[in-house]
Amino acid sequence: MWWNLTRASANVAWVLVLATILWGVLLTTRVMRGLDRPAWLLDLHRWMGGLTILFSVVHMASLIADSYVEFTPVSVLIPFTSDYRSWEVSLGVLGFWLLVLIQGTSLMKKHLSQKTWRGIHMVSYPLYAIIVVHALTAGSDVGTPLYAGFSTALAMTGAAVAGTRWVAGRAVSRRPRPDVAAS
Description:
single chain, mainly alpha, 183 residues, globular
């Protein structure tokens, strides 16, 4: 049971972090202007970020509960303390702490400068790359055809989302629209 919960929670967290980044890109770039509702996008973006942390915690707790490989609270919270695939597991630990940092600073956005908040938030893209490498190297499903297809689809979708942010983000005007400024 723990093995299945570990795998499922990791995959759900991976999908959630991708969806969270996608919603952030939709919010920032406004590529769907006219069809989107920014307040709704922001609420959903924040909610999915919180769910990502929750499923990551479930993933780590189920690793500790499973007796097949010996994980401890220390080995899932501190990099390079796991005896099992130390480098690969450490990427997951680093990813978790980056996720907490990004989500935490979003909750404290009013207390940070826009430049600081944005700089920390842009770490979402390297975070996604870390998650991809962690998922492709640390798990027991690595190399199975189903997981290879699943992880390839998520990695490529993540690259498309980042590409959309890079291309559409350059075209977005940071000045308020005339109809919004007049209100």
